[in-house]
Queue: 3 jobs
Job 1
Amino acid sequence: MKELFKKGLAECIGTFVLVFAACGVAAFTGGSLVATSLTFGLVIVAMAYSIGRVSGCHINPAVSLACLLQKRITLKEFFVYVCAQVVGGFVGGVVIFGIAKLGGITLLGNACNAVPATDVSGYISAIFAEVILTAIFTYVILNVTDSKNNGAGKKAGIIIGLTLTLVHLLGINITGTSVNPARSIATALASLIYEGSLTALSQVWVFIVAPLLGAVLAAVLFKVLNAKKDNEEPKQE
């Protein structure tokens, strides 16, 4: 129980830092493509080498789902991780909006939230984009953190961070990029609390469902592509 609490706390802290720093940069720069993308990636690198040894540094329910499907964490750990991630993200979102409010700072545009267009085609485009981007991100994570992948080793955190930077560079102009339900829930709730806006909250289901579907897709691809290797028997001398 003590170890599980430590893991949950680590996930809570990690997700707080992700939302506070990365969504903060997005909000205060108007969603600058390069700055926001780099910040998301750099936060992942920093957290991977800080809390990775404690919880594995998922800080994303989609990543936790992929790990659950690969039996790298238990169902109990999954629920603890997701709850901790949502709480940590929510606190990060509240702090960002709170700092802006107290300092009289205007948050530029809707950069803190990932929001699709309001018509049907916009939703379809957003869902497809988020599924694919999350699948890419989680597939890379499953591979570089695989115990059989000796080539990744200590470079895993950097590889994962660069991958998150990549998906943000591609996705920001499509959906604002979420690939992380906890991050989207956090900023949607904070937006409601401080701005009274229901827009992000009404559309947050896209950024919950699509990333989770992407995680399932990544887990299936990983299983299929690694099945032969895992089932191979040692050759007889």
Job 2
Amino acid sequence: MIAVIVAIQSEFDAIQQLLSEKKEIICKNVSYTTGKISNKEIVLAICGVGKVAAAICCCRLLENFEIDYVVNIGTAGGIKEYENIADVMVADKLTYHDYDTSAFDNYSIGFAQNPYVFYSDEKLVKKASSLLNDGLHQVFVGPLVSGDCFVSDSEKVSFIQKYYPEALACEMEGCAIAQVCDSYHYPFIVIRSFSDIVIKKGNELDFDKYKELASKRAADFLFKLCQID
């Protein structure tokens, strides 16, 4: 069974529409949706926004279901000039952009020498990479950063660009889910479609305008990924 975790309702709606044999189940007072995409059994959960909510959801799934691997999928903010809304990125590694204890220890801000860098499963990344040339939008493979804030102001953008220059996007749940999966020793992959491009003017308005489009694009990518054995 594949655990699919999303953060917001538009992401959930886009994926649950793709499920066959769909049903709602209650496990320990929490609602989940199960079904199939192709021949893959899916348990779909909406975790809510932010790292703690995402980590709690992921723990519950791993402890209460027979999970083969975890897919965290949804929307994110792109941070490169060459990216466009509804492009997709597959995260090969993730870290937190808002974790910093360097004032009193040897923590290294950035990806280098940082103990909180987590890597998506190589086999899953390879499968996702085979979908790069789908003819619809660009698809990128690269690093992703997570933090408990919606990145839109220039100060936060500049910080990420300075300390995480290789990052392709930022969002609020992926690295927490990656850390849980790493701790539990479960394979995972994090996939995002861009609802906004944080370095472009009007970014804070784009998210509400394009979140449904990006959610559908991410769901379509998951559907294609599930066709691959």
Job 3
Amino acid sequence: MEFSEYFPIWDKLTPRQQELIAAGLAARTVRRGAVLHSGGADCTGLLLVKTGQLRAFILSREGREVTLYRLFDRDICLFSAACIMRSIQFDVTITAEKDTELWVIPSDVYRQIMEQSASAANYTNEIMASRFSEVMWLMEQVMWNSMDRRVAAFLLEEAAIEGTDRLRITHEAIANHLGTHREVVTRMLRYLQRENMVKLARGAVEITDRTGLEALSGG
């Protein structure tokens, strides 16, 4: 499938605007673990995922990570082009969680399109509102939910993404997603194992009581 089939407002752009995007568009294939964007000083451009999975996270001064959101097929990342949105005041890192095919729209090209097209400007605002809603939801989780609830919710989300209850994931990786220490996650997982909700193995967590996790997570 072509880029035009993945970009929702393609048909709302003028032929000249379509030409501008097509001329600057770059297709990329990245391996799992690759860093696509690193901080506000890096103006990579807009990322549109064809297939795969990306992760957007922020990094504290102490080096602790917390996941803001994930990007899947057909999702677009605006924070990788933060230089065209001066109101963004925090640094976001984008990495590939799986081997990923994507397109990169240069920041200067997209800025020009936004200035010319009301459809592009409205689409950008909708995506930005959606992303900030996800960030606000994350803040609520951090401020008001206990860590056992957050771990339970994360495991259920991960199982939904992977399509399996046996998750190949380390305690360190879970801690990075949730913005906490590995030891905290290990303690929570051992508690869940004692409650027969999960079964732990080296580099893996298996959900054994989905109903119990859902009740604990509040979902």
